[in-house]
Specification:
Elements lengths: L20 E5 L2 E5 L1 H6 L15 E4 L2 E4 L5 E3 L15 H13 L10
Antiparallel strand pairs: 1-2, 3-4, 4-5
């Protein structure tokens, strides 16, 4: 999963914990790269109880890692989102083809 802000791809750290952080934006779990953590965390969702942006989204609920508050996630039809990053479906298709050893399916118009 790339950084939600700049699109950088996460790589495995040499040792220790990853410097990447998780967050929630529009009720969706996102990753934030180290560079974007310093300047672009204002558009992440925040906890309604304590204001922290240390949230995780799972199985229909959002939990605050700061205070432990849990709330139901909003239904997708109640949200206004920008959708998946451009080109993501093509990247996923190519990765699956590499892993599964399949030939890429022709695209419409090719």
């Amino acid at each position: 999963m790339p950084c939600y802000r700049c699109g950088a791809r996460q790589i495995d750290p040499a040792r220790g914990a990853s410097p990447w952080k998780r967050g929630v934006r529009h009720e969706t779990q996102v990753l934030v790269c180290p560079d974007c953590q310093q300047s672009h965390t204002g558009d992440l969702d925040s906890c309604r109880a304590c204001g922290s942006t240390a949230l995780i989204c799972r199985l229909g609920e959002v939990e605050c890692r700061g205070c432990g508050a849990v709330r139901p996630a909003q239904a997708p039809d109640q949200l206004v989102t920008s959708g998946a990053p451009p080109g993501l479906s093509a990247e996923v298709e190519a990765a699956l083809s590499r892993v599964l050893g399949r030939a890429a399916a022709p695209r419409p118009g090719d």
